[in-house]
Amino acid sequence: MKRFEIITEADARMLDVGTTVMLTPHGHITPLAQDTLRSRRITVVRDDQLNAVEAALKPVAPVRVVAIGSDHTGVSLKQLLAARLRSAGVTVQDLGTHDQTPVDYPDIAAAVGRAVAAGEAEAGVVIDGGGLGSSIAANKIDGIRAAMCTNETTARYSREHNGANVLCLGASLLTPDQAIAIVEVWMRTVMREPRYIRRLAKIQALERGRR
Question: What pLDDT, in 10s, does the model give residues 23-50?
Fold first, then answer.
């Protein structure tokens, strides 16, 4: 995001339509620039507008400590991803399951979600057959924003726009290479836009029963 101490008419005309820019706390916008910014639908935020509560909602990136879990359908993929992450220097907490004995995906999703919500891990990855069930279950944990992703684009959007802190994958929908690519993109994507971060506060308010 571009940062300005002063925004002039010339600056405003050079910015892309619909973008967001940052103005320093004591920054200034010229009168002509105000009109141009408005007509070009450019949002200006001051860097002191992002309060501590909103900043705390921003997901950690890149992720260095991850909790990972799967039901019995995703054990092989979980083991592959865990090994890959560890080789990249990421601390991995494997929360099970560890064999093909059937288990219920809500239990695994809850374990991963609770680890993230408690701050024991910076992010979580949950795997089941389709990924949807685990995302529903994980999202029942306060503070969790779980997203089921099927490609690198949805992985990036889930972090950059929605601040997802748990990634859910469907073992039956992805090849190992696809899953690895999704996880790597997801874990390194940064959430920067203040407008996106502020929206997380509204999600938190919904979670806590406030409008």
Answer: 887 889 999 999 999 999 898 877 666 6
Told to judge if 161 belongs to the known catalytic residues of this protein, a careful annotator would answer yes
Q: Which one of the listed residues 26, 28, 98, 161 is annotated catalytic?
A: 161
Same domain, 123 and 36: no
- Rounded to whole angstroms, the Cα distance separating 132 from 146 reads 10
Q: Is residue 69 part of a domain?
A: yes
- β-partners of residue 166 are 124, 146
CA–CA separation, 25 and 127 (whole Å): 44
First-to-last C-alpha distance (Å) of the chain: 29
Give domain status of residue 197, yes or no: no
Average pLDDT, integer, range 111-135? 98
Residue indicated by tokens 């959007």: 157
**How many domains is the chain built from?**
2
Burial 48-67 (b: 16+ CB within 10 A, else e): eebeeebeebbbbbebebbb
What backbone torsions phi and psi does residue 119 show, to the nearest 5 degrees?
Answer: 80, 10
Joined tokens for residue 156: 């990036």
What number is the average pLDDT over the span 11-34?
Answer: 89
